[in-house]
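Duplicate of earlier report; Exodeoxyribonuclease VII small subunit input re-posted below.
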Amino acid sequence: MATKTAQTADEALGYEQARDELIDVVRRLEAGGTSLEESLALWERGEELAKVCRRWLDGARARLDAALAHDAEGEDGEGGGGGEGGEDGADEEV
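Output:
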């Protein structure tokens, strides 16, 4: 049950919060001076935080890709279909 609560809490973290906590975990691991058990707990926490960050980044990438695809479709529909056909027709008549 505690694991489910921890997952829910991690999902509520924003990207910046998760990133900042991950940076702190890495610093603590690099500094040393912790017991094996503490180091393992920090490592596991770092893995979970990295997953949270990855989910945020994957979501941001998907949103950017969708926006770029939408823009590309809009340009093709507006400039590609109607504009070129009229210009081509005008060139042929001249």
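Residues 80-94 have pLDDT under 50 and may be disordered.

Merging into the original ticket.
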